[in-house]
Specification:
Blueprint lengths: L28 H21 L5 H8 L3 H7 L3 H26 L3 H11 L1 H16 L2 H4 L1 H24 L8 H12 L5 H18 L14 H13 L2
Length: 235
C-alpha cells in the first residue's frame, strides 16, 4: 500500500489547527438527506446550464419543494458556496482513497484523475461558480479545503517522483494545471472523448522515460499558493 510522508488517512476535521474554519453543525438524518440531494442537483444543474439556473429548477431536480431548498440555503450565494465546498471536499476524499488503495503513487494519481466523475464535475462547477461569486474566494473553509487538496496532490507527486514513475522536471503546480485544463470545459459526448484523449497524451508525457526538455521551470505547490493568494487580494 502506498504511504507518502503526508498522512493521507487522517480526516481534515480530526485535528483542526488554530485559525481553521469551524465545522458545520450536525444535521438530522432527513435534513442531511435533503441537503445532499439539493447540492447534488445544484452541482449538475450549474455544470449543465450555467450559474444562473433558476432555484426552482434545482429544487425540481432535487425532488424537494422550493421552501425546503430555501430553508437549507438562504439564497443563491449560500447554495453556490456549499456546492463548491462539497465538490472540493469530494475531490480531496477521492485522492485520499486512491492513495490508500493503490500500490504506487503514480497509480493513485492516475486512478483519482482518470476515473473520478466527481473530479470532472467539481472542476467544471467550481471553475464556473468561483469566477461569478466572490464569496467563494473569501470563504475560510474553502481556503482550508483547497490547501488540503494541494497538500494531497503534492504528496502524490513527490512520492511518484521518488519511486521513479513521474518525470522529475515537473512540479505539483504543473500537474494541477494540466489536469484542470483537461476537464475545464467538457460538456458534450464529443468533448468527453477529446478530454479522454488529451488525458492519455498528458499522462504519457508525465511518465518517466525519454522526453523533451521543458521550457521554464517547474511550478511548485508554493507557486500555486502564491497565485491563489494573489487572486484573492486583487479581486
Amino acid at each position: 500500500m502506498y504511504s507518502p510522508d503526508l498522512d493521507l488517512t487522517e480526516t481534515a476535521d480530526s485535528c483542526s489547527p488554530p485559525g481553521a474554519a469551524p465545522a458545520e453543525p450536525a444535521l438530522r438524518a432527513d435534513a442531511r438527506r435533503n441537503r445532499d440531494q439539493i447540492i447534488a442537483a445544484a452541482s449538475h444543474a450549474f455544470a449543465d446550464e450555467g450559474a444562473d439556473v433558476p432555484m426552482e429548477e434545482i429544487a425540481r431536480r432535487a425532488g424537494v419543494g422550493v421552501g425546503t431548498l430555501y430553508r437549507r440555503f438562504a439564497d443563491r450565494e449560500a447554495l453556490v458556496l456549499a456546492v463548491i465546498r462539497d465538490s472540493v471536499e469530494a475531490v480531496v476524499l477521492e485522492m485520499r482513497r486512491a492513495a490508500a488503495e493503490e500500490p504506487l503513487a503514480w497509480d493513485a494519481l492516475v486512478c483519482a484523475v482518470d476515473h473520478s466523475r466527481q473530479l470532472k464535475l467539481s472542476l467544471r462547477a467550481s471553475n464556473l461558480l468561483s469566477a461569478r461569486h466572490p464569496a467563494a474566494r473569501d470563504d475560510a473553509r474553502l481556503r482550508d479545503l483547497r490547501s488540503e487538496l494541494i497538500d494531497v496532490i503534492d504528496g502524490l507527486v513527490t512520492a511518484a517522483q521518488r519511486e521513479g514513475t513521474l518525470r522529475p522536471d515537473v512540479g505539483t503546480g504543473d500537474v494541477m494545471f494540466l489536469f484542470s485544463q483537461v476537464y475545464r470545459a467538457t460538456s458534450s459526448d464529443a468533448e468527453e472523448i477529446a478530454a479522454k484523449r488529451a488525458l492519455a497524451i498528458l499522462l504519457d508525457g508525465l511518465r518517466t522515460g525519454p522526453k523533451s526538455t521543458l521550457p521554464g521551470r517547474a511550478l511548485s505547490a508554493q507557486a500555486v499558493r502564491r497565485a491563489v493568494k494573489r487572486s484573492t487580494t486583487t479581486t
